[in-house]
What we know:
8 helices; 170 residues; 0% strand
Amino acid sequence: MQEEQTTRRRFIVAALAFSGVAAPLGSTWLKSAAAWAADDDAGLDELGRMAQLLFPHEGLDDRVYGGIMSTVMETTTDDQATQAMLDAAANTLDAARETSWLDLGAEEQFAVLQELQDQPFFAGIRETVRFHLYYHPDLWKHIDYPGSSKEFGGYIRRGFNDIAWLPEDE
């Protein structure tokens, strides 16, 4: 099975197309990401939970996932395409069932994500979360990653050259 990769151009086209569809529906249907952060913690909680289901790490504090989405929202206040993507995600998650997505059980939440994985916003959020999550120092601590070694002369000088499983050069 060949997966179709979402390019930046395809994402922008999808975001613009979505914003063209959403605009006639009125501003009550589509809030800005800043509004989510300011007056609706449920939107942030939904996106944080979505991040947790996309990239589960057993034992990683839920606040890390919420913090990542909060950071994404804060850094994209001037980026209308990304705001539209985040808003589409939060609204679509709730619209998928007759109740709030957060009120669903974990299996049902995951099922909703599987149903929505072909939506234009899904790949954008997945890649945004992946970037912010795996550059987050709290995740590094959780998986015992010491961080970048470039500043310290690379990995060889920090004890990571103990690869005894490789054959010796002859």
